[in-house]
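Researcher: I've got a protein sequence and the SMILES for S-adenosylmethionine. Could you write out the 3D structure of the bound complex as structure tokens? I'd like something to compare against our soaking experiments later this week.
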Amino acid sequence: MRRFSADYLKDTRRGMWNDRAALAPLALDSRTRILDVGCGTGELTRVLREESDAEVVAVDADPDLLRAADADGRALGDATRLPFCDDAFDLVVCQALLINLPDPRAAIEEFARVSSDVVACVEPDNAEVVVESSVAAEAPLAKRARDTYIAGVETDVTLGSSAAALFREAGLADVESRRYEHERTVEPPYDAPALDAAKAKAAGTRIEEQAPTLRRGGLSRTDVDELKSEWKAMGRDVVEAMAAGEYERRAVVPFYVVAGRIDAGETERGDADRLADADDGSNEAA
Ligand SMILES: C[S@@+](CC[C@H](N)C(=O)[O-])C[C@H]1O[C@@H](n2cnc3c(N)ncnc32)[C@H](O)[C@@H]1O
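Model: Sure. Here is the predicted complex with S-adenosylmethionine in place.
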């Protein structure tokens, strides 16, 4: 399981839900019991609680992150084996979880088991990320590193744009997908996370952390070292431009909000199939 730090999650989610129009298909104001799966530090959980009078329960497989999530109930658990009975919630949702799972469809099917009404996800398509920077080398380097990372990573980090198809395959009905752009900007005056990010670039920290994935994506160790050295030089330019108050960066991360309804007909058919499949002793050859 890929691990995330609380600081990373808090930093990358800043300002993400200033505009909440894309969450409309979740009908948050009509919910009574919501489950946020893969809640991390509870960045989406907080939004769900602000937009709804429902009881909001948070689940994550990482106990340290889960502890930081402010929810009405918290449970340690795996997205593909949720510790809840069938139909326990009227909305089951996740944010940036499916892109980290080897079998996202199994998780969606599990969400459908514990939901009586709607299943939803908020997932990015990392292939569509756009970076603009006042340091000329930054955008092309970021794209090169990102494309290689996507080629080497073992889960589908571009899943957002195809999540609706997965929902349909999992048997959900009335599936709706909305594209939402999270814009992140760095400009003067710089805050502490922006200054830390610049220092990390100048140290090549991220490239080193991602080295195994970049190698799976086709780079030799020498290629990784070359990329790291270009990255560090770019980072030093960023630090210098910040010291002069001249650095500006804009990143747009597209997220897809996908929602689907539990298909009552499907559930009844499923029950009938299960009854037909049940071993009643009449089929000794099976
Ligand atoms: C990118 S973070 C997203 C956290 C939060 N939803 C957010 O948007 O800030 C992915 C989260 O999924 C959790 N996670 C990964 N695999 C999981 C699994 N199989 N079951 C439950 N949680 C899982 C991680 O611990 C992490 O907190």
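Model: Residues 1, 4, 9, 13, 38-40, 43-44, 60-62, 65, 78-79, 95-97, 100-101 surround S-adenosylmethionine (CB under 6 Å). Residues 13 and 245 are 24 Å apart (CA to CA).
Researcher: Great, I'll pass this along to the crystallography team.
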